[in-house]
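User: Here's a chain of 89 residues. Predict its fold as C-alpha cells.
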Amino acid sequence: MTDEPDFMDISETEDVREIELPRWVQVPAGIVLSLFTLLCAFGSAYLLFVPNKKAPILAFVVGFTLLLGCAWVLEKCFRLITARKSKAG
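Assistant: Prediction complete.
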C-alpha cells in the first residue's frame, strides 16, 4: 500500500487549462444551436399567446419558463458566435 491519496491535490488542479474548441467549430455550432433554440422559442411563445382551455395558468407559466430558458441559450449562442468570454466565471 502506498501513502499517496487517491485524489488530486488542489495545487495540482490549478495548473490545468481549459481546452477550447477551434473557431471553425464554435461558429457553426453556435449558428445551428441558435436556429434550433429559435424554433423552441416560437413553440414556447405559442404556449403564451394561444389560450389553453384546460389549464391556462399552467400553460402560461410553463411557456414563460421555457421562453426564459431559450433566451439564456440564445445568449450562450451569441457568445459562441462572437467569441466573447464570460468575466463572471
